[in-house]
Amino acid sequence: MKKRKIGSLEVSEIGMGCMGFSHGYGKVPEEAYSIEAIRKAYDFGCTFFDTAEVYGDVVFYPGHNEQLVGKAVKDFRKDIVLATKFFLHPDELADGTSIYEATRRHLEASLKNLDTDYVDLYYLHRVNQDVPFEEVAAVMEKLIQEGLIREWGMSQVGADTLARAHAITPVAAVQNLYSMVERDCEKDIFPYCLEHDIAVVPFSPIASGFLSGKIKADTEFEKVDDVRKFVPQLSKENIIANQPILDILAEFSEKKHATNAQISLAWMLHKYPNVVPIPGSKNQERILENLGAANVELTDDEFRKLETALNACTVYGHRGHVETEQVDFGKNWEDEKKGQNKENKQ
Questions:
Q1: Which residues, in sequence order, are bridge partners of residue 82?
Q2: How far apart are CA 121 and CA 119, in angstroms?
Q3: Residue 177: strand, helix, or coil
Q4: The predicted structure's pLDDT at residue 332
């Protein structure tokens, strides 16, 4: 697989989002299956794996995904780039704990979970408005100097926030929502990141499976811990309304002997030299299919035709790439998690 740069790091041009092995897409697979899936991805050529401290049951099994990924990559840890994320809550600082101390505590827990002594790419997982992210940026420089992390990044941010953090400690990557049906990043994030040599790492680049064409208007998602219930494009009415986009993808996938999902990934790889998508799935077949998009190359003419066709479509069900804008999606997801945790405690 071809390589791309994230700061000083070299990664496969398509990475792997590992969240689905621990939560977010209904019932999780058996551990052995998940570990095998990650190892198959590595054998395919993937060298970039993404996780987070909160992927799993936050209350009853924090760190589940990090532990799983750590087990899977143990034999080839030095040959890959590991990314994980942390979130700071103001309560952690209430007793006089410094932002450095709180961040270091999160990082040490992740290092233990991942069974490693450094993290290649450490993200601030969403910006908490009550915790000064400029101070977090300063802490990241210190962690880099200490050799505990190699690069740092931010997630779900706009260009203004990114610029303020980047001025303190250079940011290597921004992990934002970006796909054919969520293109806000093209307005502010991509221009800024291209100018300042920052990688953009899209999560949900296949729009939670919508762009694969495998999700239909009558598809029923799992009742427990399936975030797709709250994704705007996956409501019945929006799946129907956005059908023209799938028709365009189907036309190109037939011509290129590829799948819809592969065309959607090939489109962004062709469009931006600094993009490194991290499609996620808990299904081994889908994971290898997504990575196979690296073998699908659009010509300049094909890209122009695809781009023109997409630009002529109206997208129904907008979510937005900045976390503070995602009021409905975030609230519904958090309310469900709180309800599950309450039931488990009982």
A1: 49
A2: 6
A3: strand
A4: 46
User: Which of helix, strand or coil describes residue 261?
Assistant: helix
Tens digits of residue pLDDT in 9-49: 999 999 999 999 998 888 889 999 999 999 999 999 999 99
Judge whether 244 and 313 are in contact, CB under 8 Å. yes
**Is the per-residue pLDDT at 331 higher than 60?**
no
Phi, psi of 3 (to 5 degrees): -110, 155
pLDDT at 342: 46
Q: Which residue stretches of 94-203 are H helix?
A: 99-114, 133-145, 159-166, 189-195
Catalytic residue among 25, 33, 42, 55: 55
Roughly what angle, to the nearest 10 degrees, separates helices 284-291 and 260-271?
Answer: 40
At 114, list the tokens. Answer: 């991942």
3-345, CATH topology level: TIM Barrel (3.20.20)
pLDDT given at position 239:
93
42 in catalytic set: no
Q: Are 153 and 174 in contact (CB under 8 A)?
A: yes
CA gap 254, 160 in Å, rounded:
41
> Which amino acid is residue 258, in one-letter code?
A
Q: Domain boundaries in the chain?
A: 3-345
pTM of the predicted model as reported, rounded to 2 decimal places = 0.91
Residue 63: CB atoms within 10 A of its CB come to: 23
Give the H or E element holding residue 335.
helix 327-345
Select from 16, 21, 10 the least CA-distant residue to 66.
21
* Measured distance CA(133)–CA(299) in Å, rounded: 41
d(CA 241, CA 316): 7
